[in-house]
């Protein structure tokens, strides 16, 4: 089987790596990731304002010696989360394809922890009373809610701007080349001698050329049907030539019709 060109409208498959052409969706994802980074840094700023610069060791996950009375804290997990968010922001501005699934997974994980923290606060007897008091606690809890909203928004953007996978190109079929009368292969589209275009030859597929009587493409005149072969000329019975008239036999002493040959010369005498 020979393979022709891809059908009209088919696009080549570029694979799953490399750059992504959906710049608008990635820019929106990058902006949402930056908002999440600002929320994390705001939480760190609140903890530093309450415990001082020594809280940086706690923020990096190397110590837990500083206590901050707050519903939300910035710890080693938040440091790793912030670094990963910044990497995703850089990748989004560079239009990396890996940013979309990575952002959905990372923010979904963070949203799960934020939702669990909110449920624990709203269901606890003491934490329910301090959910919005003092005002700093309310701001920190609003940051948890914002993280959940951002995760949902990023998932929606990824789903709305996902590039559909291009359909596989269907190979065009070209009829096999025949060998009429034991000759060399014919070029594609050629019609063997004596064959009518659009008809099968030697039990194979139809030879090249339009099918007689078929509808022509738009903008082209219709294909006329093949002309009927000319009828052979009509012949009557062959006439019999008349018989030759009988002539009288020639007399015996009549001279021959043709002169006789001269006599042979005498043989030379023997020496």
UniProtKB/TrEMBL annotation:
<feature type="region of interest" description="Disordered">
    <location>
        <begin position="213"/>
        <end position="271"/>
    </location>
</feature>
<feature type="compositionally biased region" description="Pro residues">
    <location>
        <begin position="219"/>
        <end position="244"/>
    </location>
</feature>
<keyword id="KW-0812">Transmembrane</keyword>
<keyword id="KW-0472">Membrane</keyword>
<feature type="transmembrane region" description="Helical">
    <location>
        <begin position="101"/>
        <end position="119"/>
    </location>
</feature>
<feature type="transmembrane region" description="Helical">
    <location>
        <begin position="21"/>
        <end position="39"/>
    </location>
</feature>
<keyword id="KW-1133">Transmembrane helix</keyword>
<protein>
    <recommendedName>
        <fullName>Integral membrane protein</fullName>
    </recommendedName>
</protein>
<feature type="compositionally biased region" description="Pro residues">
    <location>
        <begin position="252"/>
        <end position="271"/>
    </location>
</feature>
<feature type="transmembrane region" description="Helical">
    <location>
        <begin position="139"/>
        <end position="160"/>
    </location>
</feature>
<feature type="transmembrane region" description="Helical">
    <location>
        <begin position="74"/>
        <end position="94"/>
    </location>
</feature>
């Amino acid at each position: 089987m020979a393979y022709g060109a891809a059908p009209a409208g088919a696009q080549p498959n570029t694979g799953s790596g490399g750059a992504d052409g959906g710049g608008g969706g990635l820019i929106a994802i990058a902006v949402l990731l930056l908002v999440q980074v600002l929320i994390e840094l705001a939480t760190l700023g609140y903890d530093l304002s309450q415990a001082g610069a020594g809280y940086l060791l706690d923020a990096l996950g190397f110590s837990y010696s500083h206590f901050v009375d707050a519903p939300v804290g910035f710890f080693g997990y938040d440091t790793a989360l912030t670094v990963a968010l910044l990497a995703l922001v850089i990748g989004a501005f560079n239009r990396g394809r890996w940013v979309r699934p990575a952002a959905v997974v990372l923010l979904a994980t963070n949203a799960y922890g934020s939702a669990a923290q909110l449920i624990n606060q709203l269901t606890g007897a003491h934490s329910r009373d301090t959910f919005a008091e003092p005002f700093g606690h309310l701001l920190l809890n609003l940051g948890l809610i914002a993280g959940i909203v951002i995760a949902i928004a990023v998932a929606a953007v990824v789903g709305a701007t996902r590039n559909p996978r291009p359909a596989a190109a269907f190979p065009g079929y070209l009829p096999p080349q025949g060998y009429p009368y034991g000759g060399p292969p014919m070029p594609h589209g050629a019609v063997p001698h004596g064959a009518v275009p659009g008809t099968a030859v030697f039990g194979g597929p139809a030879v090249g050329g339009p099918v007689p009587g078929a509808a022509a493409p738009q903008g082209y005149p219709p294909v006329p049907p093949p002309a009927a072969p000319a009828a052979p000329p009509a012949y009557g019975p062959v006439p019999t030539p008349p018989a030759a008239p009988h002539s009288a036999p020639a007399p015996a002493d009549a001279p021959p019709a043709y002169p006789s040959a001269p006599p042979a010369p005498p043989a030379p005498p023997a020496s």
